[in-house]
Amino acid sequence: MKVSFREELDKRAKLVQDYLQQDEYHRRFVLPHQHDSVYSYITSGGKCLRPAVLLFSCGAVGGDEDKALPAAVGIEVFHTWTLVNDDIIDRDDKRRGKPSVHTQFSRRVKEEFGYEAGEAQHYGLSIAILAGDIQHGWALSLFCELYHKKHINPDTVLYLISELDNKVLNTIVEGEILDIQYSKFPLGALDEKIITDMLWKKTGALYEFAGRAGAMIGLEVSDPDHELVRAISQFVSNCGIAFQLQDDILGLIGDEKMLGKPVGSDIKEGKMTTIVHYSLSQADEGQRESIAKVLGDKSTTPEEIERTTSLIRDLGGVEHTKKSARSYIEKALSYLEIIPESKYKDLLHQWADFMISREF
Q1: For the range 333-336, what are the long-range contacts, defined as Cβ-Cβ under 8 Å and sequence gap of 24 or more?
Q2: Among 115, 109, 38, CA closest to 80
Q3: DSSP secondary structure, 314-351, as one string
Q4: How far apart are CA 198 and CA 295, in angstroms?
Q5: pLDDT given at position 97
Q6: 155 burial class (0-12, 13-18, 19+ CB within 10 angstroms)?
Q7: What domains, with CATH codes, occur in the chain?
Q8: Section 190-216 average pLDDT
Q9: Is the full-model pTM beyond 0.90?
Q10: Mean pLDDT, residues 348-355
């Protein structure tokens, strides 16, 4: 009988949430603004896709999910601080249907302490940066619990911590920097391969690590070149690119209520997605000028964004990116062929399909 993916995904999300709600963690954060900023996105209902794939990957190589749980929780907290930073960088005022951390605390400090607008804005940004710092440290301490609470081989634990806080962290930051820089490049200066590589650095690197970590914990090895570890890493890596491509699609034509964040912000920020790149390659001179006029204009109106979105769709940018995302999923699934049959392998298949079928 085929397992229900959504039920299994929700089950892992609850495990992660329950773990994070333990009193020992709440007691660490003394000040209300400290506590509430750290927990803001954690309690707002994330999909927990990264923790889920870590746990599924652990099970797929014959491991015990329970032993991998601290790492799954650590991945979610690590991902959360990247979201806090990303919202500052992209100047987004909403996340998961609630005010972003910097927006939330800018408002709170006005209400609670009477700060003027400029000082309140600076305070909100400061709190968000500090919350991200705390979450970063908390994520690493959760990985330490693999040894302290679950007695996983310390060589495995040390390898994962070192890789996460060096290679993966630097790759994500590199991707963020490139994303900012690319938004100011002249139209036509980038090709799709360069854009996709940047997307992988922003998103795929952490997904790849989640799969690799789950497999290594399940096997209790510290060798990333183990055959099964390498296969799952490549599977999740390609799914990570597909995830970001779907995210770009939803960021353009998704339902803002379902997404819980602004639609069209990528156009305002001038993000050079594969959608925009392909559309520009198919556009005539007038259409290119029309897109270029709106792309990166912070003062653009909702009506202008809507017209630009319609033009981009007509030029085939969305459909092109959908096909590209599907091709990455097909490539990803080929890496699962050597993984033994199990309910976990089936869950990995369904997880891959969800990455490009989701609407939030």
Answers
A1: 333/235, 335/231, 335/232, 335/234, 335/235, 335/238, 336/231, 336/232, 336/235
A2: 38
A3: HTTHHHHHHHHHHHHHHHHHHGGGGSPPSHHHHHHHHH
A4: 19
A5: 86
A6: middle
A7: 5-353 (1.10.600.10)
A8: 97
A9: yes
A10: 96
